[in-house]
Design goal:
Elements: E1 6-10, H1 18-25, E2 39-44, E3 56-58, E4 61-71, H2 75-93, H3 99-113, E5 119-129, E6 134-137, H4 142-155, E7 161-163, H5 170-179, E8 190-200, E9 207-211, H6 218-225, E10 228-237, E11 241-246, E12 251-256, H7 273-294
Antiparallel strand pairs: 1-6, 1-7, 2-4, 3-4, 4-5, 5-6, 8-9, 8-10, 10-11, 11-12
């Protein structure tokens, strides 16, 4: 249900009822793109049933789902067709169209080609945890997340959100974990796994990716000490959930580990929606709590996070250990 996680803090004062959210979403239900429409955005039943409710509540956790449909015509096709029209005008009138007329021709060509374009659809699940004032998106990019938040703000009056900021930045914490001499210095419930991306802060922007590689070793520490900082780090939580933490506090490649899905207790022949929601939110909630705690807790509104600085490399005596 959640392959990616972006987490926001819901502002104070937002406390609608389930019925109020349903009523707010109804005017913004998804409608497929028209023949000459490039994009359509709207809400669909998260359970997947036709004409079902637009918001579901499972164990007090609210789930909504946004559908995004878009049509795309290759730019080179538009330009080629537009050039043909411009050439026809020049041949017929002996004049070259100006910039504005060329833009209008490009727009006309695009509109004429859109009915032939295939529509692509994508969905984003939104989890609202009002008790903990947290909003979680299954979004893999900031652009997609911004689109979802814009759609939410348009329909839910009084909703305000902000990205969660932690006292210790994810990059600073990941750096500390990679430099830790022993696994005992990793945070409770979190384990560093076998994947990371390190990037230099210098002009060359050199980077190195470790995949299926034991990271608690001197080779990795050497790269970090030379100024390459982690932008991604694979972690697991409590032996139950694996994910990749990014420097912007996004969770990617979220995966429940072997045996965890059996905890839903749902018969395979039954609708798994309720069980999947209960399991996903029941695991991701505590995971986020543990992760935020490992990052020093949530930063107070208006405070500034300490900047991430490259580790300082010092010259060691010949008989001193390298780290």
């Amino acid at each position: 249900m959640f392959k990616n996680v972006m987490v926001y803090r819901i502002g104070e004062g937002f406390a609608p009822t389930l019925a109020e959210v349903q009523a707010a979403l109804e005017p913004a239900q998804f409608v497929e793109c028209g023949a000459s429409q490039e994009k359509s955005v709207g809400w669909i039943p998260p359970r997947g049933e036709a004409y079902g409710p637009l918001i579901e509540s499972v164990g007090g956790q609210w789930i909504v789902k946004l559908m995004i449909e878009s049509k795309a015509v290759p730019g080179n096709v538009v330009r080629r067709k537009a050039d043909e029209r411009i050439a026809e005008i020049e041949a017929a009138t002996g004049r070259k169209p100006g910039k504005k007329e060329k833009r209008d021709i490009m727009d006309d060509v695009l509109m004429s080609l859109l009915p032939q374009a295939f529509a692509r659809q994508s969905t984003v699940i939104v989890w609202m945890d009002l008790e903990n004032r947290r909003l979680v998106l299954n979004a893999g990019s900031q652009g997609k997340a911004d689109e979802v938040m814009s759609a939410l703000m348009n329909v839910l009056a009084g909703l305000s959100v902000s990205l969660i900021q932690t006292v210790t930045s994810p990059q600073a914490a990941m750096t500390q974990w990679l430099l830790a001499p022993t696994e005992d210095e990793w945070p409770a419930d979190l384990t560093v796994e076998r994947e990371t991306v390190l990037k230099s802060t210098g002009e060359d922007a050199a980077s190195v990716r470790f995949t299926r590689h034991h990271l608690a070793n001197d080779d990795v520490r050497k790269h970090v000490m030379e100024g390459k900082l982690p932008t991604q780090l694979a972690l697991s939580w409590d032996g139950r959930v694996a994910f990749v933490l990014t420097e912007t506090l996004q969770l990617k490649k979220v995966q429940f580990l072997d045996g965890v899905m059996d905890e839903s207790g749902t018969d395979k022949n039954e609708d798994r929606f309720d069980g999947d929601v209960a399991l996903s939110t029941g695991l991701l909630g505590p995971l986020l709590d543990s992760l935020i705690e490992a990052l020093g807790g949530e930063m107070e509104l208006g405070a500034e996070a300490a900047p991430t600085s490259p580790p300082v490399t010092t010259e060691a005596a010949d008989d001193d250990p390298p780290f």
